[in-house]
Each structure stands twice: as C-alpha cells, then as structure tokens.
Amino acid sequence: MTISFDHHRPIYLQLKEYLYSGICRGERPPGEKLPSVREFAVEAGVNPNTVSRTYSEMERDGVAVSKRGQGTFVTTEEHIIDKLRVELAESQVDAFLQSMERMGLPPHKIVELIKDRAENSSKEDPS
C-alpha cells in the first residue's frame, strides 16, 4: 500500500479518505473486516494511535462497525455507503468547480465543456 501523505492535513483524515475511497470502489465490500490497527499502522507507516483515531471517526460516521474481540468491519448498510459515495463525488465536483473558477471560466462554459467531453468520451468508449 502506498499512500502519499499531505503534511499540511491530519494523517487520520487522509487514512479515512483512503479507506472511504476503497469502500466506494467496492475494494472493501460491506461486511469486510478491516485490517487490525497494528497491521494497518505498519502498512501505512503511521502510529497505531493514528489508525485508532481513523477507525473511531469511521465508526462515528457509521461507515465502520467495531465488534468486541473481532475487529472493525465495513458497515453492511448499503444506504450509508451510497451516501458516502455521493458525498465523495460532490466533494470532487466542488474541487473541480473551484479549479475552473480560478481559471476564470463562467458556470455556463464549465457545463458546456463537461457536456462536450462526456459526449466525446461516450463516442470513444461505446461500453
């Protein structure tokens, strides 16, 4: 596992985003056991307390469930994962829009560009 950390942001948040991304892509399906705190700390090259905080935050968000003596698991509640997926997508769209606004593009031009790219993309990839 390779995670490039941004040293200007809390590591536990970046670990949470990394795990959330894997959950949304289906790499960590509902009900799957997450690595133990120690295992994940070694894999990520961080302090176990950081992983503990990450898992606690995930539980607070409802995305992970801790079972006493068994470990931490991805929630089996699909609606929570669907909500997480939408939130991550919205976050990416917001970052994209901010980037386009910094380039001085008005909203209607941004929409036009996206529409053109999407249409061209579907012509290139008929799947």
Automatic annotation (TrEMBL):
Transmembrane segments: none annotated. It comes from the Bacteria. It holds the Pfam family GntR. One of its GO terms (molecular function) is DNA binding. CDD domains: WHTH_GntR. Keywords: DNA-binding, Transcription, Transcription regulation. InterPro entries: Tscrpt_reg_HTH_GntR, WH-like_DNA-bd_sf, WH_DNA-bd_sf. Residues 9-77 form the HTH gntR-type domain. PANTHER family: GNTR-FAMILY TRANSCRIPTIONAL REGULATOR (PTHR38445:SF6), HTH-TYPE TRANSCRIPTIONAL REPRESSOR YTRA (PTHR38445). This is GntR family transcriptional regulator. It comes from Alkalicoccus halolimnae.
